[in-house]
Amino acid sequence: MGLAFLRADQNWDRLIYLLSGFEAIVFAAAGLLFGASISRRSSIEAREDADQAKAEAQRQQAVAEQHMHGNLAGEALVKAALAKAELQVATGRFNPDVVELALLAISLSPAMSDTPRIRELRDVLLIAVERMRGERQRYAE
Question: Which residues contact 101 (CB under 8 A, 6 or more apart)?
């Protein structure tokens, strides 16, 4: 407002030049001040999001490891049942419980039942089941 009275002054151009420089410095300082606080808030939020994501990733990894150990134990059980069934096939003596367990193991693990050895074992076990049914019927009569 005071500059309006100095309009006739010969140093008017110099005053405008100084005012624009001062104005630029003030606005830069205000931008720096407000920008830093906004940037700080954004970086804090980003850090919190990253911490949450890291915690979730660790939790998911723990769940995956539990499933992996469970699958390994299941595979070991299937292999043990099949080994027991193969032993019975080799000896020709069939325990109905072992035969049933081996057939269940074969049906629950489709990846393993694709091999020729397992298909042959399944066929032999199914024949053994038919024989055991026939023997039960003979004893029942």
Answer: 81, 84, 85
Query: Per-residue pLDDT tens for 49-105?
Result: 888 888 888 888 887 777 666 677 777 777 888 888 888 888 888 888 888 888 888
- Is 121 within 8 Å of 106 (Cβ atoms)? yes
Cα 56 to Cα 50: distance, rounded to the nearest angstrom: 10
Ramachandran category for residue 92: left, alpha or beta (phi over 0 → left; psi -120 to 50 → alpha): left
Instruction: Transcribe 46-105 into DSSP letters.
Output: HHHHHHHHHHHHHHHHHHHHHHHHHHHHHHHHHHHHHHHHHHHHHHT---HHHHHHHHHH
Residues 89, 125 contacting (CB under 8 angstroms): yes
Contact 100, 130 (CB under 8 A): no
